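Entry 14: structure prediction run for 8-oxo-dGTP diphosphatase. Input pasted below.
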Amino acid sequence: MKSIEVVAGVITDGGRIFATQRGYGDQKDGWEFPGGKMEPGETPEQALVRELQEELAIEVNVGEKICTVEYDYPKFHLTMHCFYCSLAAGCKPKLLEHEDAKWLDRENLNTVNWLPADVEVVKHLL
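Run finished. Output tokens:
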């Protein structure tokens, strides 16, 4: 089975957490914490800064690591490193690759259909 290593940002603003809805691929329409694949030679933090710039046109400050999720999807094994992030001053996310996005309070985290690996992250947040 193919293995993929990715990073995901739990972007917080006050008590809210940013969630995105995938707009493509096998997991289309599922909700996730934004991020993406690491490139050779990148640290997880560097990959997260790059991916969030590419996907949402934002600059972030990467904070504390939350967890690393290991999950077997039908076609691949996922290793996902998750970090808290905060938006740089004046940044507002623009949806360049996602179908939708919303800010959720911790109490409302389970109101979207999270992708299976992201469900594990939600458990850590709650």
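Notes: Residues 24 and 65 are 27 Å apart (CA to CA). Will compare against the previous run tomorrow.
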